[in-house]
Structures are given as C-alpha cells and as structure tokens.
Amino acid sequence: MAKPAAKRGFREARLLAEWPAVVGEELAQRTRPERLDRRGGAPTLRLLVAPGWATEVQHMAPQITQRINQYFGQAMVERLALRQGPIPARRGGKPAPAVRQAQAVAAPESLARLEAECARVSDPELAAILRRLGETVMRNPKRGS
What we know:
Elements: H1 2-7, H2 14-17, H3 19-23, H4 25-30, E1 31-37, E2 44-49, H5 54-72, E3 79-84, H6 97-102, H7 108-119, H8 124-139
Parallel strand pairs: 2-3
Antiparallel strand pairs: 1-2
Helix pairs in contact: 7-8
C-alpha cells in the first residue's frame, strides 16, 4: 500500500488504511482521502465527499482535522479541500481491521476506573487523549506484548 499511497501524495499511508478508525465508520462511508498536499503552506487533505454531504463535511472540517492530528499525534493536516463524487466501496465490503478492533468492548469496571483516573487530570485535552489511549489499550490487550 505504501507505493500507491506515495504516488497520491501520502507519505503516511496509515491515513488511507485507517481512515474509518480516524473519522468513524459513518463519516468514512461518505468520504475518502484522495491526496495529502504539503506544498505551499498549510498541509491540505484533499477529500472526496459523497454527493449531498459536502456542506455537512465542510462544517465538520475543524473536528475532522483535529481527529486526524490527534490520531497520529502530530500536526499532519491544517485544512481540507473537498471534491464531491461517488465514494467507491472498500475492497471486499468489509470494515478495515482498525474498525473491527474499535468495535471491541472493554469491561465496564475497567472503563469506570479509566474514567476516574482521567477525571483527575486537570488539562481537558490531555484527559481526552489519555482516555482514548486507555480505551485503545483495553480493546487490544495483546497488541503491546
């Protein structure tokens, strides 16, 4: 995937591969990243948007860029450039592996403990990041071993 992604302007092929995990399944069904343009100023993600959804996605642009940057832990995208068109189905029609992992459910006791620990963090942005990290670790316990 890295070579075709590089030809389309993606140094970070994970953005393509993990798009549903980054923006959520509902938005991933209506959008596809086409190109990450880093030339001439602000890094711009060129995004294909399903017909009739451009206005909605335009209103969500700040949240989408924030999700992308938080997911990858760096300022990867500053703005979106939208193009309307039909969204091709993902290969095999199956959710991406990252989406299947995100659907795993952690034990309620573990989630409550995580929530309590994150509530002790005074910085709300840091608390949100730690919460997402904790949820990811709980859903994928064997991954770190």
